[in-house]
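Consortium newsletter contribution from the modelling node. Members have asked for a concrete example of what our holo predictions look like. Here is one, prepared for the S-adenosylmethionine complex that several groups have been discussing at recent meetings.
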Amino acid sequence: MASVSDHYQAHLAPVYLWMAGGFEAALARGESEIDTILPDLAPGWTGVDLGAGFGMHAIPLGRRGCSTIALDTSAHLLEELRRRAERLPVRAIEGDLLSFPRYLDSKADVILCMGDTLTHLPDRQSVESLFSLTSDGLRPGGRFIMTFRDYTSALEGPRRFIPVRSDDDRILTCFLEYAADHVDVHDVLHEREGPQWKLRVSSYRKLRLSPEWVSAALEEKGLAVRREPGLAGMVRIVATKTGE
Ligand SMILES: C[S@@+](CC[C@H](N)C(=O)[O-])C[C@H]1O[C@@H](n2cnc3c(N)ncnc32)[C@H](O)[C@@H]1O
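And here is the predicted structure:
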């Protein structure tokens, strides 16, 4: 089983933009999601994007004048982000998302953790630590917004094989293997090499987090929680820092 960062480095990052349907299409989804979740976003805000990837949400934040810290452990995806963000106020940092407070000079207006990044954390204690850090890092009224997949109901038999994307030269299929508190994700990649197909498989672990558990853990840290449907079947949770 690879670590999350090794899995991205060796397997997923080089095909990530292809998997997401290409940069422009993915960015358009990010732009639209930012408009939906932050209709009041104003220039001068401070934002953090945890597990920012190639910038699907960090770039829209920057385009709206929000000074954004974009953290990720994938050097490959951050390089894409830097290249695409050009002169936007987006600072791409290679590092673990739990280290974000060290890069914040003031309380944040918004902290994002989008696209199932939350489930990549190694255990529930790390998730709870992240919630403490986000609660401390937000200004009163500031929002911590996350989207993630609910893996609590186990798929069975052939339904555990998920076709992710395919074209004439590449096929990505995901196979899910369920354990009590996590799911082992096997990313099965076929790539055409001349007349032949080459198979590469890499596996990593995601947490099975229920929306109820996540909501309760956030409330315990002093955040008011709203839950709604996110993109592509994900759960979206908007947690607002209460108090003066
Ligand atoms: C499924 S992708 C989501 C990317 C982006 N947020 C989006 O919505 O397109 C998860 C991202 O989180 C990053 N990641 C996973 N665990 C991380 C960690 N502990 N610290 C920083 N980044 C992490 C991965 O490198 C990857 O870019």
